[in-house]
Amino acid sequence: MTGKGHLVKKGYDKIAERYQADRRVFDHVKELEEFVSLLPKKARVLDVGCGAGVPVAKFLMDSGIEVLGIDFSENMLKLARENVPKATFIMKDLTKLDFANNSFDGLTAFYSIIHVPREKHFPLFKDFRRILKPNGIMLVCMGPDEWEATEQYYGTNMFWSQYSPEKSLQLVKDAGFQTIFDKILERGKEKHYWILARNKK
Fold first, then answer.
1. Secondary structure of 96-150 in HEC code, one letter for each residue
2. d(Cα 17, Cα 108) in Å, to the nearest integer?
3. Among 9, 45, 156, 162, fewest CB within 10 Å belongs to which?
């Protein structure tokens, strides 16, 4: 794990409960419903950077989806297991995915890729494609503009790294995905760039 990774991990361990409380105001039902509508029955989904398990893992479980959530924050995982006890949560660095090829029908990454150094985004998307089955569905959240910084966040240091939407979309396409939608959405008074895409193996 890089120095930036340690900073992000330490930060989320510190702010887990306060962060979870605020995430509840982010309404992603529409996007999650569209994501779920594209999955096969009894689908298996990887939630990358699952945080406290709400709203994503909970929504997916309530929709009859088998969910595996990964995060590298111990305190976030503790909350996730309390919030969504029927899902499976394990500690894992999202930049080191050692799952077998074609392991998942779908993959979500909400507010997690933006904490990874942007030079690692393309290898990450290629890894997502590798572990997704053919025609697997991916729903990810990226930054709304090009920016990289370490700043105060809930009273702790936090790191962000993102490309422009145009660059992010090109990386997703170059990694082997076919775009279903891409758009900047405002949720919880924050703007992010969302991509729903299909794995074209």
1. CCCCCCCCEEEEEECCCHHHCCHHHHHHHHHHHHHHEEEEEEEEEEECCCCEEEE
2. 22
3. 156
What CATH number corresponds to the domain at position 89?
3.40.50.150
Range of the structural domain that residue 142 is part of: 3-199
pTM above 0.90, yes or no: yes
pLDDT computed for residue 25 by the predictor: 62
Residue 113 tokens read as: 């890729």
Interval 99-112 mean pLDDT: 98
pLDDT value of residue 21: 87
Q: What is the largest CA-CA distance in the chain?
A: 43
